[in-house]
Amino acid sequence: MTILTIDIGGSSVKSAIYTGELLDQKKFDSPKTLSAMQAQLDDLIQSYLAHYPVDTLAFSVPGIANQTTGRVDGVSSLRYIHDFDFVAYFKEKYQLPVFFENDANCACKAEIHLGIAGDVKNALFIVIGTGVGGTIISNGQIQPGEHAYGGEFGMMLVDGHRELSELGSAVHMARKYSKNKGQEFTGEEVFALADAGEKEALAATDELYHYLALGIYNLQYIIDPEYIVLGGGITKKADLLPKIQEKLAEIMNYGQRCPIMPQIQVAKFGNDANLIGAALTAQGK
User: Which CATH number covers residue 63?
Assistant: First the structure.
């Protein structure tokens, strides 16, 4: 089985051939419109088909992968992805089997089957990218919830009116910092400026760590998992866990009786988890 696996995200689209490992990985920035996305995906798929015997297409998508209608439902940071018949479009164009799954669920599947969570029955996966998504694992199974919104942790209001997807995202942090500075900065650049001691960057990253820790704290006491796994691009930052744990220690002293410190781990596969999980979905896992 030669699977072309594609991870569609709010900031970028990643792809690879999966035959048990990821081969020939590519990446492009997510375009601004649906027509541009379709055109770039078609060019990408054709480039793989010219060099590999692809027999299956697998997608990791933001939002809810509706397995009945073949559409991407719910809400996501890539709004136009919800505006067309996703599976039907690619099936008709390429006459190949097409599979798709929510991005956080894909990351979770990679970790359950091949990563750090194989022996864990109850866990949370939080994927931090342009927004924040997640997955609830209970008794070893993904729990989608009554309306398939289980794990949409990014919709949690963490300051009374703003969502964790905004306040817990390095992408949104960088956008806010850029607006204040009058020029464009990436999340990586803001982190580097903070590491160098730049005052406004320090304030921006401190706020980010606080809200991530607050979200983790709330989820620990609502769902009480064995541990919480963090995934997404931000996990490449070596001091991410110490910073979040520092903020958690502060939150634990706000006055509540808090006997359980959340146990946090970083996903094994990092940014590759969504690609691997989409391929595993195509394999029936």
Answer: 3.30.420.40
